[in-house]
Amino acid sequence: MCSKLESRTSRNVVIIGHSGVGKSSLINMLCPSADAPVSNDVFGCTTTERAYLCDLGRQQSCMVHDTIGLEEGSWGFLWAPKAERRLKSYLKKSKPHLVVYCMPGVRRYLKKSYGRSFNKFKSMAGKVPIVVVVNHLEDSRHSEDWWSANLDVLRKIGIPESTQHACVTTLPEVDFMYEIYGSSKRGIYDSSREAVKALIMNNLPQY
Ligand SMILES: Nc1nc2c(ncn2[C@@H]2O[C@H](COP(=O)(O)OP(=O)(O)O)[C@@H](O)[C@H]2O)c(=O)[nH]1
Ligand SMILES: [Mg+2]
């Protein structure tokens, strides 16, 4: 039989999303000792799924699972249909309690296919809740308001506005940069970490 702590750490949170959106960066933000490989290359650098222990605070923890990106195109580590099949089978195998869908909230990166993948994996996840982390918002004046300010965009790509979410940055250098410039946005990386942990905590089943 599992102890209370073991049963808590055995709650699985699987991070999914397209290649290069920042899934591994999100893992590194949540688990500072993870050192998950991160890269801006067109060829995805996460070549295998891996789970890391995440301390959620208040004596709660979970395992966060890094996954291979969807739709890298023909140049990527895995051809799109193969990547999708692999993620599907990983979702079955890892028995998630929560799925986190990661996507960037800036115009130059946002694509309609992000909404299609979200809905595909939402129906695949069945009863397992799926939440969204919108990242790349370090330059946005009001990152926490991104969701309400972009309801028309969400509608266009087909993500329901009622979806639980956090709007953040997962770029680690950002606090250092804002510290140097004495910007009012310093501390944004730490507050992003807290926002995502709160999102996970509020949507994970409690034991
Ligand atoms: N500007 C910005 N870049 C980010 C953010 N999150 C990740 N990146 C960068 O995006 C690139 C891809 O990140 P990675 O975590 O490897 O993406 P993955 O393929 O989804 O795992 C890296 O160069 C990261 O530094 C973010 O919130 N803002
Ligand atoms: Mg990765």
UniProtKB/TrEMBL annotation:
Protein name per the record: P-loop containing nucleoside triphosphate hydrolase protein
GO molecular function: GTP binding; hydrolase activity
CDD domains: Ras_like_GTPase
Residue ranges annotated for the G domain, each copy included: 12-135
Origin superkingdom: Eukaryota
Keywords for the protein's UniProt record, in alphabetical order: Hydrolase
The organism of origin for this protein: Suillus fuscotomentosus
